[in-house]
Design goal:
mainly beta; 117 residues; seven-stranded mixed sheet
């Protein structure tokens, strides 16, 4: 069964940093694309960042540009979202979405990020 599992969320003070991880399994999956989105309480889920694992191209939501960095470790089938200069407005559940080759897209269960002021 294909799955992705996020980790790395937690409570951090404003201005702090966190690194989120997203592990895709089984290891035999060939990931073509991985994205992060988030959903704050009472709001709709919104796009945060995406990376094409084949070309390496990335794109970001405007409000995280310069603060968040998406990256990957192909050997471990793991994607990362490095978040710095965190703001209370970044508080949300962060979800990973992986699109493997020849397989449907896979969503994780999410990891909570809470930024205190």
């Amino acid at each position: 069964q294909e799955q992705v599992v996020e980790s790395g969320g937690g409570l951090v003070e404003a201005g702090g940093s966190l690194r989120l991880s997203c592990v895709a399994s089984p290891r035999s999956l060939s990931i073509a694309d991985m994205a992060w989105s988030r959903q704050a309480p009472g709001k709709e889920r919104e796009f945060v960042a995406r990376m094409n694992w084949i070309s390496g191209s990335t794109n970001y939501a405007d409000d995280v540009k310069g603060r968040f960095t998406i990256s990957k470790d192909n050997a471990k089938n793991t994607g990362f979202l490095d978040m710095k200069s965190l703001k209370p407005a970044d508080t949300a559940i962060y979800y990973c979405n992986a699109k493997p080759l020849f397989v449907r897209a896979i969503w994780g269960q999410g990891t909570q990020v809470t930024v205190s002021s």
